[in-house]
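Section 3.1 - Work completed
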Amino acid sequence: MFLQGYSKGTVKSPKTQVSFSGDIIHVDFAIDPFKMFGSSLVSKALVYNNKVQTTIDSVGIVRGFIRFYRLLYSFNSFLEQLMTQKKVEDYMTKHSKLITFKPNDRIYLVIRKLIEKSISGAPVVNDDGELIGIISEKDCLKVLLEMVMHEMPGGIVERYMSHQVTTLEYNKSIIDAVEMFQKTNFRRFPVVKGSKLVGLISRRDVLMAIKDVGGLT
């Protein structure tokens, strides 16, 4: 957000060494209007990162300056509002296009499919379409260890899959998805409606939403 807000207080300009009491404009990037305007008529103070950048003149300059930042603030608010209106279901890969497995599938089938489709993992669902786990490349590596160390043949998916799954609800906003990706190292999340799997959303899907909102070409 460009404009962080207004406050009242007492600050000192590093340029003029003039103490000032009154309105303070807080922004989130450094700028020095003093160099542009050369004014020592103090009526507003510009603060960045809790440090005074300069004091600025009130005659025309302050009005235009505040108007400019209010415009940026409004535009930023518009983008935030737009992003909260974009939903996970708008950008996820639909269930019908996903590779999924059943808990009783043989693990060798999973390994073959992961290689053929060049994917790192897939959801596991029961006969009612409910998400019950995730099977990944890492999970499949357990097969090799069991074969070498215990001379055990590969079993079924349920034996190797991860049962604890982090999911996103289909009606969550793209902002919610961004926050989830920021908090974890996961590249994708299963999307659910209640307990049923309805899709999968990846980091790239979220980038597509940002591209759409930002009007990037």
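Second construct:
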Amino acid sequence: MKNVLVLLAAIIALSSCKPVLIYDLSLSSVNRPEDVTKPFGDKKVVSFEGSDTPVYTYEDENIYITWLFLQKQLGFVITNKSDNSIKLIWDNMKYVNYNGESCGIIHKGVFMYEMRNVFQVPTVVPVGATYEDALFPVDFGHYTGGMNEWKPGSLFPQENIYEKNIKSYKRACESLMVNVLFPIMIEGVENEYVFQFKINDVFSNRKK
């Protein structure tokens, strides 16, 4: 699975006309409610540190989710394992970048610039159903004018790193983390899942 995800990200980046840095991320930890039926209850942290292989999926009694990090978005596929429908609360979702700065998100299909601050209707995922979407942090895009369209931007720096410097740049990135606050309504209670991601690797599509 890991090889497929990295290959997909690389293919998309390599199709670009100009050199880009490709970042491979995986889950570091998940902070989740101990009891999803209790508002503001105790939290539980599930850590993946020390795992022999990168982790891209998380599962508990309510959800199964797989993440795919691309240069301009965080894609995911979520399955509802609970006994009730769940809701994804888009307006309360947040992306926290490697500098600790937080911003809102829009999701796939919402690309009109003026809609970035407009209410986004929660998505209902029925019992046993699977839903696929992608998150685009609003502060990492730009307005193109004309059609009033919003274009997503890279979530990580696109420095002009030459191959001889890439190893030192990788080391500098090892401690960087990003977080996604991912609220899910379960049995009428809004539960805050916080997914933390770490950088596994950085490489360039620059030709030698």
